[in-house]
Amino acid sequence: MELVDESLIALDIDISSKLSVIEKIADLLEKSGRMKDRQQYIKDVLQREKIVSTYIGDLMVIPHARSCAINYPSLVYLRLNEPVDWNPTEKARYIFGIAVPAENVENIYLEILSSVARKLLDDTIKTTVFRSKLKKEILVALLY
């Protein structure tokens, strides 16, 4: 199964809170058959957020978790119409949700995290992800 596909990308959506963002990530994972326990995944992501914020600047966040609720390593991308409060001093509009099975085979968790972070250093990729109206273009930018 591919790490990300068009079913895991949601563009220009209205969400009003950090919790709603995490729930939307869970919804997309569940709908695509990549998850077996929605509530457990949400709990795991919220627990991870308590350790240290996943805010990385420029209205971007990478909420993530290794979770027994996940069947397949996955990347979800959400682009919001308006930023939401992520923390008291940080807002998020561009969300890259990472979900991997708890066993984290071959350290895929860190590979995905570092790959996404590297790609977002490229201004061309960042512009595509931030502005494109086409899921296919965003998918290509994130995968290649």
In short:
This protein has 144 residues and is of the alpha/beta class. The protein has helices at residues 18-31, 38-51, 108-119, 123-131, 135-143; strands at residues 9-13, 55-57, 60-61, 64-67, 74-87, 90-101.
Describe the protein's architecture and organization:
With 144 residues, the chain is α/β, with parallel strands linked by helices. The chain has one domain: Mannitol-specific EII, Chain A (3-Layer(aba) Sandwich). The chain has 5 helices and 6 strands. Strands 1, 2, 3, 4, 5 and 6 form a 6-stranded mixed beta sheet that branches. A hairpin with a 2-residue loop joins β2 and β3. The longest helix is centred in the first third of the chain and has 14 residues. It is globular. The two termini are 16 Å apart.
Write the layout of secondary structure elements.
Blueprint: E1 9-13, H1 18-31, H2 38-51, E2 55-57, E3 60-61, E4 64-67, E5 74-87, E6 90-101, H3 108-119, H4 123-131, H5 135-143
Parallel strand pairs: 1-5, 3-6, 4-6
Antiparallel strand pairs: 2-3, 5-6
Helix pairs in contact: 1-2, 4-5
Q: Measured on Cα atoms, how large is the radius of gyration? A: 14 Å
Report mean pLDDT, rounded to a whole number.
94
Q: What does the main sheet amount to? A: 6 strands, mixed
Query: What structural class should be given to the helix and strand makeup?
Result: alpha/beta
Spell out the helices and strands N to C: EHHEEEEEHHH
Name given to the CATH homologous superfamily: Mannitol-specific EII, Chain A
Distance between the termini: 16 Å
CATH architecture annotation: 3-Layer(aba) Sandwich
Number of DSSP helical runs? 5
Helix content: 40-55%
CATH topology: Mannitol-specific EII, Chain A
The overall strand count is 6
Report the top-level CATH class.
Alpha Beta
Number of domains: 1
% residues in beta strands = 25-35%
**Which spans of ≥5 residues are poorly predicted at pLDDT below 50?**
none
